[in-house]
Amino acid sequence: METEDQTLVQDCLTENLDPAPIKDEYAPVIFSQETVSHIVSIDMMSGQQDLENILRARATGKGVLTSPFKLLKSNHLGVVLTFAVYNKDLPPDAIPEQRTEATVGYLGASYDVPSLVEKLLHQLASKQTIVVNVYDTTNASAPISMYGTDITDTGLLHVSSLDFGDPLRKHEMHCRFKQKPPLPWMAINASVGVLVITLLVGHIFHAAICRIAKVENDCREMMELKARAEAADVAKSQFLATVSHEIRTPMNGVLGMLKMLMDTDLDAIQRDYAETAHASGKDLISLINEVLDQAKIESGRLELEDVPFDLRNLLDSILSLSSDKSNDKGIESAVYVSDRVPEVVVGDPGRFRQIITNLVGNSIKFTQDKGHIFVSVHLVDEMKGTSDVGDKVLQQGLNLVQDMSSKTYNTLSGFPVVDRWRSWENFKMLNGKDAKDDPEKIRLLVTVEDTGVGIRLDAQDQIFTPFVQADSSTSRHYGGTGIGLSISKHLVELMHGEIGFASEPGVGSTFSFTGAFGKGEVSSLDSKWKQYDPVVSEFQGLGALIIDNRSIRAEVTKYHLRRLGISVDITSSLESACTYVSSIFTTSAFAHLAMILIDKDVWNQETVLQLRSLLEQHRKNCKLNVSTNLPKIFLLGTSMSPVERSKLKTSGFVDNVLMKPLRLSVLIACFQEALGRTKGKVRGKKMSTLGSLLREKRILVVDDNKVNRRVAEGALKKYGAIVTCVERGHDALNKLKPPHTFDACFMDLQMPEMDGFEATRQIRSAESEVNEKLASGEVSIEMYGNVSHWHIPILAMTADVIQATYEKCLKCGMDDYVSKPFEEEQLYLAVARFFESGL
Amino acid sequence: MDLAALKTQLKNFVQSMFEEGVLDNQFSQIQALQDSTNPNFVEEVITLFCNDAERIINEINRNLGYQNVDFSNLDSYVHQLKGSSSSIGANRLKLACANLHQASDERNKEGCLQALQLITCEYCLLRRKFQALLHLERSIVELETNQK
Fold it and tell me: Under CATH, what is the fold of the domain A698-833?
């Protein structure tokens, strides 16, 4: 058996090797490669490993690897691969003995692992970065390192197995980086950057969402608050409406009751109490109305009307309403409207009246017992050219002059007043600063001047503030809530105007305001305003003489007379009047002179007698017909007791006494009475006025006599009334049971079964029953046609008019009587009382 | 007769009644009440009056026929008649009523009878005149409608 073995390479020092011991078998190396020539003749079986190897190779017939050991020459770690060479083909399933028998030699190869690996790797990568370790891992727990330096654990390890062909042995190759991989800055930076960006974006989104959520929250809260505010507003309006209805209803009840009480039999003290209570009640109602107005203004719900109305009539009525209070205090009141103000203007008469009533009311309140309250209306344009002021009142008003001798001023009552121009000096409208100069609008300037206590200087700023009064004691002394002026200011502003005042304590106050109104046509006036048409006036062309020492007062009287179409002359004393009258005796002016009006201030009994006799004398001298009418003499007075009045009338000095403030309707009535039927036109005028009073009025005629009924019906129908006739008192009762639609009743006195007196008594008691029920709220006002106080005017028709009957009529509740058959004049006078268009 | 002449006749007739005192101003008022809305007013009133007056006069007559005259009852009738008369403007009749009223007040039956006599007289006169007047009026109306 000859085998070829490999031997360990030696350093050619054969002497280091020992001769082989005595053994059964030897396996010397016979042939070898040049590179491993040093192993020639070395017994391969001498090494333990080699021995095992050879034996195993012989037994298995496969290539067998040794475990790593140091090679002879190079001392590198290596392994030897041994093949057994057989001398015949052995079947695969041959037993080891067979194989041992067949062995003739061996073939071996030594692998120098380090150089192998290096050579292999050298081809691959740069040795610097990759560290390779090769292990023999046949014994898994104790791997033998065959190549490679000591392990420096750098982390990543790649293990791959090496198959040298020997199934018994396992080999592994561990590759790792020599150096720890440097920190991947790029990646780290990039990822950190991305992370940061993502965080930021996330943050932005988060913030945005948070913000949206917050805003939505806020919005929801606001919606809630808005809903609550709106609900509060609605509640306030409802409260207003409820208060307005709920408070006014019982108040009206109270007032109605008081009125009824005053209609009954009361002694003086009781009447006084009742009247005081009634006045307080009325004040309370006006207070409530004021507060409600204020609330309406604040909520911006006040709207102005636009209707045509007659300024002069309106002012007349305002002043006459407050004349009671002012006359009681001894204060003279007057109203004057400039000629340039048109007859009809378009605006809100109710609110206009409210403003003026408030100002006049204040004036009355704060003026004690002397002086005057003077309301004047001019066009704003009249003020603009102060140099050529045509209007006398304005002229006087702008120039306050004191008469040294009598220590009086040229004002209405002689008492000093504040300079009125100071109350409008700040008005834009008058200073020409008002840019919007609408030519279609009429701009009026209204001034209310009084001689009261004035307003304290330190309180003047707050005058228009609601609920604030000049002084804490003002409310106590003078009453009021302090809203009036604030409401007036708002109303004035709604009329596109301005309000201002000038006041001096101890002298008086003057309030002025402007307003814009539309132009109106006379024909467009509501019938209730059409009181008097001066063009067809029965006084047209007549002349009058005014004797008054106060020029402004005389101008006021002149204004009223001019409204009736009467031409006027003014003198300032009785003496000069006498002179004047004498001078015009021979002229046509005297023929036209129909009346002489003397103011109480210049009244002097003797001089008047003188005047009268002068006139009488003239009449005699001219041999005029006795029936030619002399001018009638009228006395103008402010506060006069009825006793005084009747005394003067009956004394024959004057034909009548006219009370101030002058009122057109009163003037007409007085003049008509005094002048009598001077012209034939009068009758026709009467008829048409009667017609206007009776038109469309529903009248009940009660008379048992057929003829009388028919005639009365015919007469009333002529004036346009709607007439119903009944025969008996009982029928009248049924017809006049509230609610009914009759406006008046003409009742015959003598009737069978139930006469006029009894019928009236029963009607009145039925009415008071209903009134009581209405006032106490027992029945609703709607059930009775929205009339809160039932009192139908009942006029007795009687053939014989004697005092006793008249008193009896009044006693049982009748309002007046007319004679039967109807006399036009008497009918007119009686009916006018109830159907006068009350203003 | 033609229309104008008839009208003049009527006017004169009424005027004569005024002058005699049979009628007074009130009657002209009634005439004034007659217009297009009330075309037969005068006739209506006259008819009413006549019927009423006759009734009352008969009643008064009857009353005065009794042994014990009920003066208060009488009084009310007189008052009625007086009222009607003054409404229509029958002046003389009204004055006659005043007489009766006075006598009734005095409870003077004789006086009442006398006054009643006068009233009846006046009434007959008035009625005759009214009839003539109405006749004239009707003729005028007829002519007027024929002419149209």
Answer: Rossmann fold (3.40.50)
